[in-house]
Amino acid sequence: MTTNRTTALTTALRLATDGLPVLPLRAGKVPFGNCPACTRNVCGGRPNMKTPGPCTCPRPCHAWAAATTHSDTLNSLAWAGAWRTAAAVAYHPGGASLTVVDLDNEGAIAWARAALPATRTVRTTRGEHWIYQGAMPSANRVRPGVDIKSAMAYARWLGPGIGALAALPDVVRALAVRAPAPVRPVTAPVPAGGGVCRHRTPAYLERGITMAEQQIGAATSGVHNAVYRTFLAVLSAHGRCGCLTEAHTARLFAAAQAKGETPRHCTDAWANARTRLGV
């Protein structure tokens, strides 16, 4: 950990030369507060911080998005006050195509040694950072004592560590894929008439799919759960009667992906909904 401007800035400049985007941290491992110019990301950060985007403000005010490899910015007068009071240097792993598996205790370390491929490790105050080559979404509390820091996150620089970098394994990527939240059981009546849906008209089906697309599109938070619940509702109405076609499913998946869901998340949510309803 660094404690003065000269040491912090020297470390930051060296790391930036090596291609690691860096930023100063104040006491408590906290980034410097947002400045008025960056309110609501008007400085260049992406809307709602959904994807990484550079901060064009010259101040170190945007946490992970302020991390930079530009020496002129790091040496600028606008950053001088931050380096003067910096308690540590941090870096944006995702910006350097890295992923840090943050192991916060001995139990987490024991799990990693048994479950993860060996890679570069850095000792921390309470545990270890396991660093892999490759970026992915960040996620907290993926298991007891384990956080993932990569895209849209920062990690303290605690030294180069030991060991060779390994490629980011699928087992780490899978940790960030969260299962849908439990939902209340849904009773789906079996249509009368040997599986023939009494609502099977083009207008009814079109209206239902359109409403489902709108419901997904209107989700402002908890998108994955919103997608799952919408899939569940559609399948509860038409999952047993053969009304749904691949074209209908493709429209629902497209609406979900427009909100940031991956094809894999769509497939998993659809399969989970089918399993819940027994169709």
List keywords for this structure.
single chain, 279 residues, alpha+beta, six-stranded mixed beta sheet, four-stranded antiparallel beta sheet, 10 strands, elongated
Can you give me a brief rundown of this structure?
37% of the residues lie in helices and 14% in strands. It is α+β, with helices and mostly antiparallel strands and 279 residues long.
Structural description of this entry:
By secondary structure, the chain is of the alpha+beta class. Helix content is 37%, strand content 14%. The protein has nine helices and ten strands. The strands form two sheets. Strands 4, 5, 6, 7, 8 and 10 form a six-stranded mixed β-sheet that branches. A four-stranded antiparallel β-sheet has the order 2-1-3-9. Strand 1 and strand 2 (30-31) form a beta hairpin. Helix 1 crosses helix 3 (77-85), helix 6 (202-217) runs antiparallel to helix 7 and helix 7 (223-238) packs across helix 9 (263-277). The longest helix has 16 residues, at 202-217. The model is unreliable at 46-52 and 183-195 (pLDDT under 50).
- The shape, in one word, is elongated
Give the overall average pLDDT.
80
Low-confidence stretches: 46-52, 183-195
Number of helices: 9
| SSE series | HEEHHEEHEEEEEEHHHHH
Instruction: Characterize the largest beta sheet: strand count, sense, and whether it forms a barrel.
Output: 6 strands, mixed
Q: Ends: how far apart?
A: 56 Å
| β-sheet strand percentage | 5-15%
The number of E-state strands comes to: 10
